[in-house]
């Protein structure tokens, strides 16, 4: 058990559901039949959501966070980028030793999935996924190629901006989150029906990673910085007294 | 002027999309070679205490279609109601990892979870909750992962006392959280995302 696990036991902060996308967002058509219509039953966190799966370092391979090399050992084609940042909680504390998984299209905008029929070619050396554990300060890093934009059948001429899917754990099951990182300056972000499931402009901005020239490696790759914020915990500051007193 | 309440905001959710399996279960999708095994293949190991159970079911949308691209994760306590990892009450059965990743079959949409029936876990006020498996479900078209629970229809007494189930105001909806016993150690459970028998989802 890590130190963080022994601290992070308190009730989770409530979710701001106006900040997240609503379930029913007709601009993104698939949500129309998959969104619950009934009100969610308000519960608040219990031990079931405050505890969570722990992962050991032993499972993570040396190349797991290197999407350029982790599929065949031969380099994938495309613009090489570093994606890095920290996993934090709403109190601004790093979340150490937690699993971050990513997946993405290749440089041409094609996924390695039998259902993806886009005419851009598959790259024989690009699998499209990676994973890593955060360090003691919550930091993570991936080496990958910049994913291409691609068309999809939502409305006529819908295109997804360049994006990387991200799955994060945290220290409690109620913190579980999947999101997407977008790239600074991409004109397709504002037009994307999935991006626009989010109602608030500053919430959308929280998903756009800035170009980070301090982390770029000369003559090698550019870097993008993307911090991920998980739900905070209420008890953190009151560990020496019983909840509710 | 007052001080600012400068907490960070949680990163907004986005749909897992149709290709979530590339990232989370690449081997099951037919992309071998990146990871030796997919994570979360089983929440229990041989020797885990408790009743072995299998739950099978489907995820169904508001048009009655069975989703073949759904993926969910489960998190559960051991047979004594202790969570593995960071439960403040103590250590769980070492053969219970508690967490599983369950993908619907790409052709039929049917999923299957082999596990043990969990014990009762206390609600924050100390009352025991009914035995339950926690679920977090994602799919294309789901903008924020859905949180729910699988309880069991053969736990009448525990269900009747459960502070979570009894909190559900519309009693007719409680059966949407109950896995139906179909045989010794066998249960069936469908998630319904929308419609008449919509599953109860929680705001946690």
Automatic annotation (TrEMBL), chain A:
Residues 83-111 form the Intradiol ring-cleavage dioxygenases domain. InterPro entries: Intradiol_dOase_C, Intradiol_dOase_core, Intradiol_RC_Dioxygenase, PCDO_beta_N, Protocat_dOase_b. Coiled coil: none annotated. Its EC number is 1.13.11.3. One of its GO terms (molecular function) is protocatechuate 3,4-dioxygenase activity. Keywords: Dioxygenase, Oxidoreductase, Plasmid. It is an enzyme of class 1 (oxidoreductase). Gene3D superfamilies: Aromatic compound dioxygenase (2.60.130.10). Belongs to the intradiol ring-cleavage dioxygenase family. This is Protocatechuate 3,4-dioxygenase subunit beta. It comes from Paracoccus methylovorus. The gene is pcaH.
């Amino acid at each position: 058990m890590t130190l963080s696990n022994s601290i992070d036991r308190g009730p989770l902060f409530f979710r701001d559901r106006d900040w997240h996308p609503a379930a029913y967002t007709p601009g993104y058509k698939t949500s129309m039949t998959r969104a619950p219509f009934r009100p969610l039953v308000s519960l608040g966190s219990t031990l079931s959501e405050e505890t969570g799966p722990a992962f050991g370092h032993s499972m993570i391979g040396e190349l797991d966070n290197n999407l350029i090399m982790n599929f065949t050992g031969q380099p994938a084609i495309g613009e090489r980028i570093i994606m890095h940042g920290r996993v934090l909680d709403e109190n601004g504390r790093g979340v150490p030793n937690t699993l971050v998984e990513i997946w993405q299209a290749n440089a041409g905008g094609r996924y390695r999935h039998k259902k993806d029929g886009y005419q851009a070619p598959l790259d024989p050396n690009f699998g499209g996924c990676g994973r890593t554990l955060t360090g003691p300060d919550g930091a993570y890093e991936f080496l990958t190629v910049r994913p291409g934009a691609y068309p999809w059948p939502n409305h006529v001429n819908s295109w997804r901006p360049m994006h990387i899917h991200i799955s994060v754990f945290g220290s409690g099951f109620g913190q579980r989150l999947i999101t997407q990182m977008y790239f600074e300056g991409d004109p397709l972000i504002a037009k994307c029906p999935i991006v626009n499931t989010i109602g608030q402009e500053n919430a959308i901005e929280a998903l756009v990673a800035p170009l980070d020239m301090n982390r770029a490696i000369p003559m090698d790759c550019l870097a993008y910085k993307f911090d991920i914020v998980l739900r905070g915990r209420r008890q953190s500051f009151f560990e020496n007294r019983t909840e509710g007193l | 002027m007052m001080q600012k309440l400068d907490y960070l905001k949680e990163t907004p959710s986005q749909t897992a999309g149709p290709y979530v399996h590339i990232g989370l279960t690449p081997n099951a999708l037919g992309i071998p070679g990146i990871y030796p095994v997919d994570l979360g293949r089983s929440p229990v190991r041989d020797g885990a205490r408790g009743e072995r159970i299998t739950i099978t079911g489907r995820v169904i949308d508001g048009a009655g279609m069975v989703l073949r691209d759904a993926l969910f994760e489960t998190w559960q306590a051991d047979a004594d109601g202790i969570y593995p990892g960071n439960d403040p009450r103590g250590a769980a059965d070492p053969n219970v990892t508690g967490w599983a990743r369950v993908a619907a079959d790409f052709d039929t949409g049917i999923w299957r979870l082999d596990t043990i029936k969990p014990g009762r876990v206390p609600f924050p006020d100390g009352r025991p909750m009914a035995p339950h498996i926690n679920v977090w479900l994602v799919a294309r078209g789901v903008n924020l992962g859905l949180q729910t629970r699988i309880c069991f229809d053969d736990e009448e007494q525990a269900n009747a006392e459960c502070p979570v189930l009894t909190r559900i105001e519309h009693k007719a909806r409680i059966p949407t959280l109950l896995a139906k016993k179909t045989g010794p150690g066998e249960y069936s459970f469908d998630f319904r995302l929308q419609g008449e028998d919509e599953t109860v989802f929680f705001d946690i």
